[in-house]
Amino acid sequence: MLHLATFREVLLRPESSMIELSVVICTHGPRQDHLERTLASLKAQTLPQEQWELLVVDNASSTPVAEKHGLSWHRHGRHVVEPKLGLTMARIRGIAESTTELILFVDDDNVLATDYLATVIQIMRREPQLGVIGAGRLEPEFEEDPGPELMPYTPMLALRTVSTSNWSNDPQDKHIPWGAGMAVTRTVADRYRRIILDDPMKQRLDRAGNTLNSCGDDEFSWVACEMGLGKGVFTELQVTHLIGRARVQREYLLRLAEGHAFSRVFLMHLHGGKVQRAQDPPTLSKFIGRLVRLRLSEAFYEGERWSKDRSRTDVERAFDTARRDGIERFLRTIGN
Fold first, then answer.
1. Are 257 and 322 in contact (CB under 8 A)?
2. How do residues 57-110 score in pLDDT, each as one tens digit?
């Protein structure tokens, strides 16, 4: 295995015919047309195939992915099976099976800009102090447009557009690379792998089957920053995220909000933060109860909360409830 200094020397070579990058697609029961478009975007990359390898990690799919999606078009392409269900375990398998000093994770519904792989390598040559980088432009292609009342919640679908590139070594700021198109150095990936395998609690972050937990990709940034490296989001990196109609329905987005809230406080807890129980929604009965007991300051507070809540929409209240439910699920998980 190359040390970090050696890795930087490899990336800084102006012309290199060696394999420099491993592209890892983690997938579980993929939608066939979406995965086909993901693979087509990889076929169209400007980076010569001699300089990158492709691993498709089949995470316990009922129908083997290899039966539907051949990789004979890529001289360094192969299928890998990870039987233990969960995106985290699929990423762990991808790290173990990859052979290069730079690993790029691509979701099975991502269409990469044609220069994505080449740009990832260019950024890492230019910014060797970084351990994790990601796309600054994660833009949707909706199969069905979400209703206008749901549009404010669609960034939860891993959508973002930043105006400027930024990096830092603070794992709690907003410059966190997301899993779709996230590139990780070998030193960070190997340490992440050891940490996850040693801590079963951290294996509960991110998707597993039908669960909608998340934040497993955030853990890469925590690892990088703890190692003294940085993480960043770059506008030069563009991904089109294919969003099926089922994922813009209210029920799905509410489940996603619950999963996000659970995972966000779970991640905070794993890194030593304190998590408080979410505040109950305001009700008229609480206001009246405090008023009749002459607890006037509390009554005024509850009355103000109730009045503000009355002006909000049913959708806004439903998403607040979903987030409270996620926090409560976390507290039950740790026994509080």
1. yes
2. 999 999 999 999 999 999 999 999 999 999 999 999 999 999 999 999 999 999
Q: For 207-262, what is each residue's pLDDT tens digit?
A: 887 789 999 999 999 999 999 999 999 999 999 999 999 999 999 999 999 999 99
Tokens 């995220």, located at residue: 241
Across 3-22, b (16+ Cβ under 10 Å) vs e yields ebeebbeebeeeeeeebbbb
Let me know: does 118 contact 217? Beta carbons within 8 Å. Answer: no
Nearest residue to 33 via CA among 184, 141, 168:
141
Write the single-letter amino acid at 87: L
- HEC readout, the chain: CCCHHHHHHHHHCCCCCCCCEEEEEEECCCCHHHHHHHHHHHHCCCCCHHHEEEEEEEECCCCCHHHHCCCCCCCCEEEEEECCCCHHHHHHHHHHHCCCCEEEEEECCEEECCCHHHHHHHHHHHCCCEEEEEEEEEEEEECCCCCCCCHHHHHHHCCEECCCCEEECCCCCCCCCCCCCEEEEHHHHHHHHHHHHHCHHHHHCCCECCECCCCHHHHHHHHHHHCCCEEEEEEEEEEEEEECHHHHCHHHHHHHHHHHHHHHHHHHHHCCCCCCCCCCCCCHHHHHHHHHCCCHHHHHHHHHHHHHHHCCCHHHHHHHHHHHHHHHHHHHHCCC
For 118, phi then psi, to 5°, come to -60, -40
| Cα–Cα distance, 320 to 107 (Å, whole number) | 28
Where in the chain are the domains?
Answer: 4-243, 249-336
Task: Please provide the CATH number assigned to the domain covering 4-243.
Answer: 3.90.550.10
Q: Which of 107, 84, 108 is nearest to 96 (CA)?
A: 84
